[in-house]
Amino acid sequence: MSEPKPPTPTPGDTYKGWLFKWTNYIKGYQRRWFVLSNGLLSYYRTQAEMGHTCRGTINLATANIAVEDSCNFVISNGGAQTYHLKASSEVERQRWITALELAKAKAVRMQAESDDSGDDCPAVPPTPGQGGGCRNSEIQSTLRTLNNKVEDLTTCNDLIVKHGSALQRSLSELEAIRVGGDMGEKIRQVTERATLFRITSNAMINACRDFLSLAQNHSKRWQKALQTERDQRIRLEETLEQLAKQHNHLERAFRGATVLPPSFSNPALASKGGVSGKGDASDEDDDNEFFDAMEDPAEFITVPADPKYHRRSGSNISGISSETGMDDQSVNFDELSLASNPESPQPLELEPVRQRRTRIPDKPNYYLNLWSIMKNCIGKELSKIPMPVNFNEPLSMLQRLSEDLEYYELLDKAAKCQSSLEQMCYVAAFTVSSYSTTVHRTGKPFNPLLGETFELDRLSECGYRSLCEQVSHHPPAAAHHAVSEKGWTLRQEITLASKFRGKYLSIMPLGSIQCLFDKSNNHYSWKKVTTTVHNIIVGKLWIDQSGEIDVVNHRTGDRCHLKFAPYSYFSRDVPRKVTGVVTDKDGKAHYVLSGTWDEKMEFSRVMQSSKGENGTEGKQRTVYQTLKAKEIWKKNPLPEGAENMYYFSSLALTLNEPEEGVAPTDSRRRPDQRLMEDGRWDEANAEKQRLEEKQRTSRREREREAVKAASSPEEGTHQDNHQALWFEKIDDPVSGETLHVYKGGYWEAKDQGNWDMCPDIF
Predict the structure, then answer these.
(1) N or C: where does the chain have the smaller number of CB atoms within 10 Å of the terminal CB?
(2) In what ranges is there compositional bias, type Basic and acidic residues (predicted)?
(3) What is the Cα–Cα distance from 84 to 30, expressed in whole angstroms?
(4) Closest CA to 263 of 665, 602, 16, 11
(5) CA–CA separation, 715 vs 547, rounded Å?
(6) Beta-ladder partners of 599
(7) Which 3-state string (H, E, C) describes 538-599?
(8) Structural contact between residues 75 and 65, judged by C-beta atoms closer than 8 angstroms
(9) Residue 647: left (phi > 0), alpha (psi -120 to 50), or beta?
(10) Cis ω on the peptide bond leading into residue 671 (within 30° of 0)?
């Protein structure tokens, strides 16, 4: 189709049109949309990009325009940027040359007019050691002149007040005297003072006129200077963006990495090499736009399996098992059980289920500058920094640990699995699901007091109950034990190490999590990834999870390697992405998991695997042929109005709900946390300080008792002799780890209502 011819350019017009721009030796000339406006030539891939993504800009005021042949011409600004352009015809090229020359002349003229005729500084941009000093000296001189004029105005004002008062007194005296001999003297005095007042007033008027004239003369210049600074800032921002893209492009070219789109739907992608062209660095490659230079490439590629696996899955299961080396479970059975795994019908409950609360008081809108507190805490351990409740949420760390059980159904389904590999998929999905509640939760949970506990009894509703206890204060460590009627036990001990780095806060959970299944005796263990809170200084706080998790089945040797990709501004990939591969003890892949830690996870069964092309640093990436992905976990929607309730989930809203019969050390009984939930933050801060001081006093008393009990105490090695009430430390023979495990007695004490052994911590 023929495109409408653009009009002949005239001075001041915005000229637009298609040109072919040289990119690199692989792609050659590529069609781009160019816009000439206000002395700047910018280009875009399409017209639709004009509103949001500029691919490059060159300032014509300092640019050289050269014609190569009938259709080609070159624009360069001295080496930093060079555009090799080609028009569709000689007439079109001449239109562009005319428009560019007119725009360049206008840009040079506007730049020359930005300085007054009396300006001693050169019109070209000043060099750092020359023009900048002249401009600064001129501004200082102008400010001194204006200051002197203001002082003159002040002096004249004082004189006018003085002489005006004297004139008023003379007029009053003139009215009071009688006509007589001294009449002439009084009139003479009045005349003199009136003359002085007139002279002073004239001086005042002249000084005001000079000040106004000077201000008017410099006002236009200052406005131009301000506009110039704004334009320079915009150009600097554009230059920084171009430099970031160039660095990204060169880094990928050096590393030889080609990152695939998240769909992985085209098998031909596996055959493409990681070649990056050598062209204009400002023109990004189509397939690698906005990728972070430091972003790790995908470790594996998934492609659709051969259709024969789909056709034979229902009729020749044994053939598939022998060809692919899978376990002898049928493909259809595994897929259906992984996707749905319906619960068997349960008898109706005769006793009514307790109605839990669905709202808490809205969060008050109290402003507090985080940086004013955190600036003195850089590099320190966060747990040792006293923080006001303004940065907290009305839950303790023990309650946050209990939130891991929000998607307990995944473990219920895992307990019913016949295949350990299938069970591993559910355990891995449960591992990822525990992070879904953190995506908007920028508030810091309360640090538990030593000996503080939290019970979550959902036996009648969900078939499980759990108990947490703070077993250590420095370093802060919490032990958690949950047991279900469906045949699984979850236990974990988490120690938080957190560091404030100025721009962000890193929280590194130490310790391990273990899950045991009664029926199969499978024993799983894994660790948590690093949580990072960004924009501590300025901007809106946001949370990211990054790192790797290895979920290990110690009985069978099965393993699931999960990778939490860190957020990257330049990445085209899905934010908060998680990928994983389930392998057996021999390292053979059976399932691939993918999704996001804040949304959902899917799984695909691997039918065949092969080594693909070399990736970063010479490593080969594996290509997995998989069946169609199916959903294994999806995040529950947040309750209505969650943004006003600390973004709590439905489970989190119930965690601090008062309950009868809980231990006196339960987090629900903590007064500062309760006051904060009720919106009484000033009282909560005072109560928080009281509790922390009480805990410090208790710790000093325990240390003194430990010193007295020791036969030969060594100086500087006194330790806190606190013993956990409901947990005991053991060496796990299966995983080889040392952790606190539940030793029993809590639920029996609750049934009897006997809490005499509990310390007074609140």
Answers:
(1) N
(2) 666-707
(3) 11
(4) 602
(5) 40
(6) none
(7) CCCCEEEEEEEEEEEECCCCCEEEEEECCCCCCCCCCCCEEEEEEECCCCCEEEEEEEECCC
(8) yes
(9) left
(10) no
Six-digit token string for 570: 């330049």
3-state secondary structure string across 185-226 = HHHHHHHHHHHHHHHHHHHHHHHHHHHHHHHHHHHHHHHHHH
Do residues 612 and 301 touch, judged by C-beta distance below 8 A?
yes
> Smallest Cα–Cα separation from 417: which of 553, 546, 514?
553
Quick one: DSSP state of residue 718? -
pTM exceeding 0.85: no
The token pair that represents 306 in the structure block? 């051969």
Three-class secondary structure of residue 89 per DSSP? coil
Are 508 and 497 in contact, with CB atoms under 8 Å apart?
A: yes
Number of H helices, E strands in the chain: 15, 26
Mean pLDDT of 544-554: 94
How far is 450 from 670, CA to CA, in rounded Å?
A: 12
CA 372 to chain centre: 21
The pair of three-digit structure tokens given for residue 543, joined into one six-digit string: 């949370």
Q: Which residue has the tokens 């108990």?
A: 467
Determine whether 604 is exposed, middle or buried from the number of CB atoms within 10 Å of its CB (0-12, 13-18, 19+).
buried
Q: In angstroms, what CA-CA distances link 460 with 341, 348, 412, 652, 717?
A: 22, 12, 15, 18, 48
Give the pLDDT band of residue 267 (cuts 50, 70, 90): very low
Report pLDDT digits (tens) over 67-115: 888 889 999 887 678 889 999 888 888 888 888 888 888 888 777 766 4
Task: Compute CA distances 610 → 496, 513, 558, 578, 606, whole Å.
Answer: 40, 33, 20, 22, 11
In whole angstroms, give the CA distance from residue 665 to residue 762. 7
Residue 353 is encoded by which pair of tokens? 């289920």
CA gap 18, 679 in Å, rounded: 61
Residues in a beta bridge with 581: 561, 592
DSSP 8-state code for residue 727: E
Lookup: tokens for 359: 């709202």
- Two tokens at 461? 């509703």
Of residues 245, 231, 275, the one with CA closest to residue 257: 275
Helix (H) or strand (E) run with residue 135 in it: helix 131-176
Placement of tokens 């024993």 in the chain: 523
- Token pair in block for residue 26: 């692989």
Strand partners, 595: 578, 601
Whether residue 83 contacts residue 75, with contact meaning beta carbons closer than 8 Å, is answered with: yes
Element (H, E) at 600: strand 600-614
Q: Which helix (H) or strand (E) holds 399?
A: helix 397-402
Pair 425, 603: CB distance under 8 Å = yes
The answer to whether the beta carbons of residues 674 and 687 sit under 8 Å apart is no
d(CA 572, CA 593): 20
Length of the chain: 762
Residue 449 DSSP code = P
β 15-24/82-86 pair status: antiparallel
Tell me the three-class secondary structure of 293-341, residue by residue.
Answer: CCCCCCCEEEEECCHHHHHHCCCCHHHHHHHHCCCCCCHHHHHHHHHCC
Given 3-state DSSP classes, what are the helix, strand and coil percentages for the chain, each rounded to the nearest 5? 40, 25, 35
Separation CA 212–CA 152 (nearest Å)? 13
| Cβ-contact 558, 583 below 8 angstroms | yes
* Contact present, 455 and 462 (Cβ < 8 Å): no
The residue with tokens 């965690």 is 655
